[in-house]
Design a protein that fits this description.
- The complex is a heterodimer of chains A (243) and B (337).
- Chain A has 243 residues and is of the alpha/beta class.
- Chain A has 9 helices and 10 strands.
- In chain A, the strands form 2 sheets. In chain A, strands 6-7-8-3-9-10 form a 6-stranded mixed sheet, sandwiched between helices.
- Chain B has 337 residues and is α+β, with helices and mostly antiparallel strands.
- Chain B folds into 2 domains: 57-121, OB fold (Dihydrolipoamide Acetyltransferase, E2P) (Beta Barrel), CATH 2.40.50; 124-336, MetI-like fold (Orthogonal Bundle).
- Helix content of chain B is 64%, strand content 13%.
- Chain B has a 4-stranded antiparallel sheet, with no helix packed on it.
- Chain B is extended, with a radius of gyration of 30 Å.
- The A-B interface holds A 51, 53, 76-77, 79-80, 82-84, 86, 88, 90-94, 103-104, 107-108, 136, 149, 152-153, 156 and B 235, 237-238, 240-248, 251, 255-256, 259-260, 263, 337.
Chain lengths: 243, 337
């Protein structure tokens, strides 16, 4: 489904930072891949490359066979198939919850008003906020906002969902409600790439765990392998620091 | 403890009233001083003459177009019809009055008054006020449009767009509006209208539109900088969220970024538009009879400069004050949301 071949990315801010160094990987349809690693390891850059929010300097990324780094590719079409959830929610503050979820359906998918509304209500019910449809985002808690953000991304009926540290900005008691929604999605067979520090989620839901450090994939494998007997010292060190 | 507190409170209250009194005394002293000074130079205040420049009654005279004799004067309700029999046939004139100044059998020459009636007319100050409002509204509308486009161009990565915007903004902000109005009217206006005549188009663009253009482009440059600042103040995550949903640049700007940016820059924008209303007073110099030019004309005929300039200032104050009230209302409404 997603084929990543030898991507590299260097930032110059103000000195050179090699965020990604020759990274390759493949994500199969229906797979849940969790990317972990220390901060500055390039995992956020990696996931942001998958929907062209960052553009790698080198390499290729194929989504369902389409090279998204080819200038001729209609990137907006690709992005409708790749939903993204951000660390800071990024809900549209001037639009109600319902409008947040219907806007892109209407503008991008060109759905009729009623169809967009119905789809939005189904999704809001799924994430458990149907009774807040008409309030504005600043009246919601962080956990509720992030669930709306998930509904907003799902409204485009994407084939893949990207999560960039979805629970890092949340108060501890709200992390669970967001993770529950994500678990449900995983069970329903959604293809997911998740950057997170929630090891419990990785252990329980992931099909595969990728550990990144210094812009490269150090180790990958099943959660079983990863948490019980990792091969690399760097992985062991990281796990010992966070578990 | 309690009594100390109430003592302090009553002291605060007393000093508040003292300084409020000082303010009103100062205001009163200014007015009295003005009247006293005017009295010293024997200025006669004639406020009662002012309303006629807003609205006045004019005696409309119905005049005969032919030579002849009044054949009939007939009344029909509140109207009068005067029939003049001339060599080339009869002519009938009607007027909404019972006041015919001729009677049957009178000899009439061309231009003689047959009947007259009073009619209310809009005075020159009100006409000038209307021109000021009209020019300001049109210039604000185009100023916003120009400002949004120039602001977007200013933050574009395309050098042609970016440098055009920078050049435009710097040129406009770096030269006096008065000079710009002269350039619009005497340079561009002459060029455009002469070319139109040479091409045989037959119509020329009236000065009003060059004045509007000068104000709109002047305001647009300032609005552009505000729009730029407003857009840059919106968190990057908003753009990323919109783009990640598949929206293109224009959709993102129209639905997500500009609504938030415009809301944020509303207060400075209102200030700019208040400036524009006041700056429209410069347009008198290119023969646009807006409020200031109208006042100047009335002053030369009425010789009541003191009253008229105060009235003129008051009218501008009413315009700018209502605009700022309206913007405050809009702000409150969006905040309540």
């Amino acid at each position: 489904m997603i084929d990543i071949r030898n991507i590299s990315k260097t930032f110059i801010v103000p000195h050179e930072v090699r965020a990604l160094v020759n990274v390759s990987n493949t994500v199969e349809a229906g797979e849940v891949v969790v990317v972990i690693g220390p901060s500055g390891s390039g995992k956020s850059t990696f996931i942001r490359c998958l929907n062209h929010l960052e553009v790698p300097d080198e390499g290729h990324i194929y989504i369902e066979g389409v090279d998204i780094l080819d200038p001729k590719t209609d990137i907006n079409m690709i992005r409708t198939e790749v939903g993204m959830v951000f660390q800071s929610f990024n809900l549209f503050p001037h639009k109600s919850v319902l409008e947040n979820v219907t806007l892109a359906q209407r503008v991008v998918r060109k759905r009729a008003k009623d169809a967009a509304h119905d789809r939005a209500m189904v999704l809001l019910e799924k994430v458990g906020i149907q009774d807040k449809a008409n309030v504005y985002p600043d009246q919601l808690s962080g956990g509720q906002q992030q669930r709306v953000a998930i509904a907003r991304a799902l409204a485009m009926d994407p084939k893949v969902m990207l999560f960039d540290e979805p629970t890092s900005a949340l108060d501890p008691e709200m992390i669970g409600e967001v993770l529950d929604v994500m678990k449900t999605m995983a069970k329903e067979g959604m293809t997911m790439v998740v950057v997170t520090h929630e090891m419990g989620f990785a252990r329980e839901v992931a099909d595969r765990v990728i550990f990144m450090d210094h812009g490269a994939i150090v180790e990958e494998g099943t959660p079983e392998h990863f948490f019980k007997n990792p091969n690399h010292d760097r992985t062991r060190l990281f796990l010992s620091q966070i578990l | 403890m309690n009594s100390a507190l109430s003592l302090r409170k009553s002291r605060q209250k007393r000093s508040y009233f003292i300084w409020a009194t000082v303010f009103f005394l100062f205001l009163g002293a200014c007015i009295v001083g003005l009247y006293y000074a005017a009295a010293q130079i024997d200025y006669v205040w004639r406020w009662y003459r002012i309303p006629r420049y807003f609205y006045y009654q004019e005696e409309v005279e119905i005049k005969s177009g032919i030579d002849g004799e009044v054949a009939a004067v007939s009344f029909d309700g509140e109207n009068v019809a005067v029939t003049v029999a001339g060599d080339g046939g009869d002519e009938t004139y009607t007027a909404p009055t019972r006041n015919a100044v001729v009677s049957e059998g009178d000899m009439i020459f061309v231009g003689d008054t047959l009947a007259s009636y009073p009619q209310w007319r809009v005075g020159i100050l009100l006409l000038g006020l209307w021109i000021t409002i009209k020019v300001s509204i049109i210039a604000i509308f185009f100023g916003i449009l120009i400002g949004i486009f120039a602001g977007l161009a200013r933050i574009s990565h395309n050098p042609a767009l970016k440098w055009s915007a920078v050049t435009y903004i710097e040129l406009i902000r770096g030269s006096p509006l008065l000079v710009q109005i002269f350039i619009w009217y005497f340079v561009l206006g002459t060029l455009v209208n002469t070319l139109l005549i040479k091409q045989g188009v037959g119509v020329t663009i009236p000065p009003l539109w060059f004045g509007v253009a000068a104000l709109a482009f002047f305001t647009g440059a300032y609005v552009a900088e505000m729009v730029r600042a407003g857009i840059q103040s919106i968190h990057r995550g908003q753009t990323e969220a919109a783009r990640s949903l598949g929206m293109n640049y224009v959709q993102t700007m129209v639905h997500i970024i500009l609504p938030q940016a415009m809301r944020r820059i509303m207060p400075p924008l209102a200030g700019q538009f208040i400036s524009l209303i006041k700056d429209s007073s410069l347009l008198g110099i290119i023969a646009i009879r807006e409020l200031t030019k109208a006042t100047r004309e009335v002053v030369t005929t009425s010789l009541q400069p003191f009253e008229l300039w105060f009235v003129c200032a008051l009218l501008y104050l009413i315009l700018t004050f209502s605009l700022s009230m309206w913007v405050q209302y809009l702000e409150r409404r969006t905040l309540a949301q």
